[in-house]
Write a structure and sequence with these properties.
- Strand 1, helix 1 and strand 2 form a beta-alpha-beta unit.
- The protein is of the alpha/beta class.
Length: 258
């Protein structure tokens, strides 16, 4: 049986050849200040460039860096589930490979999880009070804020950000979840099941910056659409009320224009 470690960091990777060395270096430099044992799991989500070879070169330098993956691109959810299955950590933190949230968030998430009486899940939010977004293009930021604002109505607890990958989990809490999603919808699947199991969820402020290397894989239209579909399934009453309100408003506008 593999020896357990105190902390696992999971970083899904897809066509990030320009970022590999920098990402590994920045995470390593951050975890120098971590007092326990750790591992970094790089999960290759079917990259078609030299990302995997470069990640394996980093792994050859440090056995704490482990490369996992598969040949065909499947999506962030599959990458996360692959990492979860292999993780040996008591606490597990997931990050964006481009580190648009500084790796110092890893230690902050761990501190929240490991404190006495701490939560089962920790979410990092740039949209909550105390969070910041610096230099993020409005075309990316506004749809994300809108989607997360709508998703607040899906949960029994106020959550400012439901879709950020930068999160932390207690191992025993994560093991209660039966995850199946292969795409970014896994973030909503995790929260749905966490609430169903009565897990304690806490948000901490995050600081989002634009990536400095590579190209974003985010597709705003499909992402926002999936959020709306999820909300419609979870809160059909709310969506019906919203549609009704729109119809009434349109009717009033038409009547006033006569």
């Amino acid at each position: 049986m593999p020896q357990a470690v105190d902390l696992t960091v999971i970083a899904p990777m897809y066509n990030e050849e320009d970022s590999v060395a920098d990402t590994v270096r920045r995470i390593h430099d951050t975890l120098v200040y971590f007092p326990g044992t750790w591992e970094l799991l790089i999960v290759d989500d079917g990259s078609t460039d030299s990302s995997r070879a470069r990640a394996e070169a980093e792994s050859a330098k440090d056995p704490r860096v482990v490369v996992l993956g598969y040949k065909r691109h499947a999506g962030r959810g599959r990458a996360l589930r692959t990492g979860f299955a292999a993780a040996r950590g008591r606490y597990i933190v997931t990050v964006d490979f481009d580190l648009s949230y500084e790796p110092s968030h890893i230690l902050r998430v761990h501190d929240a999880l490991s404190r006495e009486g701490g939560p089962d899940l920790v979410l990092v939010s740039a949209y909550m009070p105390g969070g910041t977004c610096e230099g993020v293009p409005p075309a990316r930021l506004l749809p994300s804020k809108l989607g997360n604002w709508l998703l607040r109505y899906a949960w029994p607890q106020l959550l400012y950000t439901s879709t950020c990958i930068v999160r932390g989990y207690r191992r025993e809490a994560l093991q209660q979840l039966a995850l199946t999603k292969d795409d970014k919808e896994i973030h909503l699947e995790i929260l749905s099941q966490a609430f169903e199991h009565g897990l304690a969820i806490e948000e901490i402020p995050g600081h989002l910056r634009p990536r400095t290397r590579g190209k974003s894989k985010m597709r705003l239209g499909p992402t926002l659409s999936s959020h709306l579909v999820f909300l419609a399934r979870r809160r059909p009453d709310l969506c019906a009320a919203a549609v009704g309100a729109v119809i009434i408003i349109l009717g009033l506008l038409i009547w006033l224009a006569r």
